[in-house]
Design brief:
The chain has 6 helices and 8 strands. The chain is of the alpha/beta class. The protein binds thiamine diphosphate (TPP), iron/sulfur cluster and magnesium ion.
């Protein structure tokens, strides 16, 4: 099981690790040196994911990964900035930061680890849980339509909004590379396995 203290361990089959590895490989293949990049994250199952990528990293205050990354980009425009966020965080409680980052269009890459549930808090429904899914907070089935983050991003004038799947590793890595090279704000909504709580 996941370690509550360090979060270094993953449940067997967790998709988080693949996303982290895809980002590391993308940096390597794009020859972006560790002192020229910064990865920003915050609370979720992979809140320490930014620390697993060598180079600069920040595990920020409550829900402030996007604003924090914005400050970094404004202060150091030469840095490659990647934000790691999650479905509850990014599409729920801190949705406002997401929409305004799309509109502001700073050159940053936003990776959303979308496991369709609140995994760190043990499996409640999230803004991307499918309608028929059984979760801790929807014991019969979920009745609320999930958000479509790609449509939302495009409506907010984002010019690079893609979907990916952590299980398709090579494809994910290539999309991450394109997103990093895109000269504005880019979002990749990444479907990931969560064997402990996502059983649909
Ligand atoms: C304002 C606030 N409410 C509740 C929590 C408790 N909390 C921590 S992680 C989490 C859910 C995280 O879900 P998600 O962002 O999808 O990340 P995952 O754990 O699935 O990777 C919640 C509700 C919190 N940290 N802050
Ligand atoms: S609870 Fe889900 S997302 Fe979290 S470490 Fe386990 S498999 Fe991964
Ligand atoms: Mg989640």
């Amino acid at each position: 099981m996941r370690s509550w203290l360090t979060n270094i361990q993953r449940c067997p089959g967790c998709g988080d690790t693949l996303i982290i590895m895809a980002l590391k490989n993308a940096f390597k293949e794009l020859s972006i040196e560790s002192h020229k990049r910064v990865v920003v994250s915050w609370v979720g199952c992979s809140w320490k994911a930014s620390q697993y990528v060598d180079g600069y990293w920040a595990e920020t205050l409550h829900g402030r990964a996007l604003p924090f990354a914005t400050w970094i980009k404004l202060a150091k425009p030469e840095m490659t900035v990647v934000i790691m966020w999650w479905d509850w965080d990014g599409y729920g409680i801190w949705m406002g930061h997401f929409i305004h980052s799309c509109k502001r269009d700073l050159n940053m890459t936003y990776l959303v680890f979308n496991n369709e549930n609140y995994a760190l808090t043990t499996g409640q429904s999230s803004p991307t849980t499918p309608v028929w899914a059984k979760t801790k907070t929807t014991p019969a089935w979920n009745t609320i339509e999930p958000f479509d983050p790609i449509t939302l991003a495009i409506d907010a004038w984002c010019k690079f909004a893609k979907r990916a799947d952590s299980a398709k590793f090579a494809e994910l890595k290539e999309i991450i590379k394109k997103a990093i090279l895109h000269p504005g704000f880019s979002i990749i909504d990444i479907t990931q396995a969560c064997p402990s709580f996502k059983r649909w």
